Amino acid sequence: MSFRRFEGRVEERTGVYQDEVNNYQTHVESTTTQINAVDTAQNNSIEEMKEELRRLQDVHEEEVNSLKSHINALSTLINNSVETINEVLASRIDHQQEEASSSRSQINSLTTQMRSMERKVELNSALLVNETNITSVSTCTGDKVLTKPSGYLAVVDSGLYPTSEDCGWEVKLPEDNDISLEWLFMSVEEQATCVFDYVTVENLNEPGQLLYGGKICGSSLPAMMKTGSNHLRISFHSDGSYVFRGFKLFYHAE
Hints:
rod-shaped, coiled coil, Membrane frizzled-related protein-like 2
């Protein structure tokens, strides 16, 4: 083989190799470009993912803050509602207590009226039973001894009692009798300890024992009383100043 032919073949081969090298370089460049594109795409995807994550975090934070606001508002509403309910319940309880107190007062008033009516019925019954034995009103003129089973006592028949008056009634019945007292009205000068004008009821079976706790004065009716005694002294005293109607009572034997 001549040198030229060999050289031609070498050049031919060299050209082939050069083409292959060029093709390889082109392939490498293409692959590098693709790799770079992939890297860029990955980087872009990561950034987008980071951005999306930040956005989601912001949205989540906003939702959490909104939920906290709703919870706070709901807590405030619940607290206000509880306070309102407590106020309403307290008001209703106070109202019911007032109604209960009013009802008790009405019951007590009715009970007092019933007892007063019962005393009047008892008094009327006693009047009917002892009608033939009842004397006229015994007024305050010195000291008197009363032995009839029933009768009326009064300071005066009418008008006002005099000043500086001292008088009394001794009611003396058989030993098996129990004297009951029913006060019809009371109008004697009032003072806390009854030092001016007063009435006393003494159990003469127990000398010095004053019934009703001591001296009686003012305008409140003493309670009807079964004295447990057959021997009483009712005394009246007035000083030298103010005068009133006095008192009137009915006594009768039980």
